Amino acid sequence: MTTAAAGPGARYTWGGDEFLFVEIDEAMSLAANFRSNAMASLLAADHVDGVSDICPANASLLIRFDPDVLPPGDLEARVRRIEEAVARTAHPTLETRVVEVPVWYNDPYTNETAARFRANHQRPEGTDLEFAAAENGLSSVDEFIQRHHGSPWLVSMVGFVAGLPFMFQIVPQEQQLEVPKYLSPRTDTPALTVGHGGCFACIYSVRGAGGYQMFGIAAAPIFDPAQSLPDFKDFMVFFRPGDIVKFRPVDEAGYRQIQGEVEAGTFRYRQAPVQFDLERALDDPAGYNREILERLNGV
Amino acid sequence: MAFEILEPGLATTVQDRGRFGYYNVGIPQSGAMDELSAEMANALAGNTPAEAVLECTYMGPRFRTDMDAVIAVTGAPVDVKVNGRVRAQWSRLELAAGDEVSFGILQGGTRFYIGVRGGIDVPVVLGSRSTYGLGGIGGFAGRPLRAGDLVPVGGGAGALGGQEPRQEIDDGLRPRFEKEISVRVMPGLYDHRLTEQGMETLLGATWTLTPVADRTGLRYSGPEMEWRPRQQPFGAGSDPSNIVDAGYAVGSIQIPGGKEPIVLHRDAVSGGGYAMVATVISADMDLLARSAPGTRTRFRPVGMEEALAARHERRALLAQLWGTGT
């Protein structure tokens, strides 16, 4: 791995007269995501008049602008300069945080929902976890769950609906867990379902439609419009692109205990600041992941 | 100072000009779907363009005012009734405390707007009073109205100060609610993923709006379109209409599986894994919002210059409405 480059130049195209779309790469990779986030950060730091939304995604970047204030050509030229600056960065790093997210895997809520929507699924019998384990050539659900929480994930995009994180596991491509989405989407998914589609994990922030496989349920909110928990004091959405997530399996008792803390208004996510180094993550994922997770010790 | 909701209607929500700056965490702009009609309601009520109005979908609410009020109803054609007597749409109406307002059956279009002097005075959330129902934020308790709700009305004397608001909107200024429309789109985004014939079909066919149309998006029926075959990139999903999940432009057109194009509107999901192939220009988003199911729709391709010219034309129309030179 010589550079952090995600292939040659990005592709620029317009989404009508108010959106500029920049495709960094057709394929998903840590490097492409890193570049998208770096470009978004630099553009945000410029506080450009006429730019209202800067949305980094998995391997692309979407920018909303007001062409009456900022002519489209001026915006494109500016973003191209930022792209070049990011490409020149010799040693890309990201100042971020690592967050521990407790999950009750194989829980009754998502299993009940999965059973209700079996007609939408590739495999009429069994659970989504059993399907996912088989799809990835693993001998048991337990082994799949172990792989799921064994290595941390990078929040590569926040969106679809309010506060929903898409996550990409920080492991070599051949170790990525890949599972197809449901054949046709469900009309219901419990809030806080830990889902998976393609190579991406997600946590559904609100109850609603969804097409990702369901593996468990997160124990604490990630979207809190009432801003009642301390982690949401500044903003109702918890996750930001670039966050690193470590899933921690809990059993029913652990889940209930956290629910109690949430109701009492005392729950806080365990988290620690970390500088994420792309090259080290690509060169030695296992070793580097251990190092990141050690930051959570003693928090 | 409130409207007491006696019957909520089908999907009545509080909307203003929208909430910008949070699309990067999945919170869409929201705001009135048919912006021009909403602004006209405000102009008649004697507000600024920024006040919140009620957006009524298909079936209007029935409500009672607990104070004297100035209201106006604009948008899709519908009978407006005050204490059971039909009153004019597109004009300023004075209500006395205790008056009851109700509506007849929609005679076209999809949404109409109720503006009230002082505006609907719900709390501002992230810079806007608009309802984002999926996230449960903004508007009245983050949801469509229900019977029994007391919807607060602002106590301001009207933002125009002493200036007398318009009595009515001239017929020539009012938007049309037609059964056949042509919508201008800018091809782009992932249009290279469709075959040439697929793109010709999208831009040449007449599409029919299905009943699957709401604030998030509108689905159209018509012929199928073909995607170029390819080895799918890592992470993109198996269908040729799939891409690695990306941000969705508001107004963008996606064609899952090559059939039934979907145009995202003001409550858009902010991203996903379907290739977008064109985007409705900002000046024509209202046209979609006015469409009723069954509306025959053509997508006409334009470039950035024509899109900007249409945008300026729309601004000039609004300037005429507000009697300003901007």
Summarize the structure.
By secondary structure, chain A is an alpha+beta fold. Chain A has eight helices and twelve strands.
Description:
Chain A has 299 residues and is an alpha+beta fold. Chain A folds into two domains: 11-90, Gyrase A, domain 2; 95-294, Cyclophilin-like (Cyclophilin, Beta Barrel). Chain A is 30% helix and 25% strand. Chain A has helices at residues 30-45, 72-88, 108-116, 128-135, 141-150, 252-264, 278-283, 285-294; strands at residues 11-15, 19-23, 51-56, 60-65, 93-105, 153-158, 165-169, 193-197, 200-203, 213-218, 244-249, 271-277. Chain A has a seven-stranded mixed barrel, surrounded by five helices. In chain A, strands 1-2-4-3 form a four-stranded antiparallel sheet, with helices on one face. In chain A, a hairpin with a 3-residue loop joins strand 1 and strand 2. Chain A is globular, with a radius of gyration of 20 Å. Chain B has helices spanning 35-45, 196-204, 285-290, 304-322; strands at residues 2-7, 13-15, 53-57, 62-65, 69-75, 80-82, 85-87, 92-95, 100-103, 111-116, 150-152, 180-187, 207-213, 217-221, 242-247, 252-254, 262-264, 271-274, 276-280, 296-301. In chain B, the strands form four sheets. Chain B has a seven-stranded mixed barrel. Chain B has a six-stranded antiparallel sheet with strand order 7-6-9-4-1-11, with no helix packed on it. In chain B, strands 2-3-10-5-8 form a five-stranded antiparallel sheet. Chain B folds into two domains: 2-173, no CATH class; 180-319, Beta Barrel (Cyclophilin).
Keywords:
heterodimer, A: about 300 residues, alpha+beta, Gyrase A, domain 2, Cyclophilin, 7-stranded mixed beta barrel, 4-stranded antiparallel β-sheet, 12 strands, globular, disordered N terminus, B: about 325 residues, 2 domains, 7-stranded mixed barrel, 6-stranded antiparallel β-sheet, 4 helices, elongated
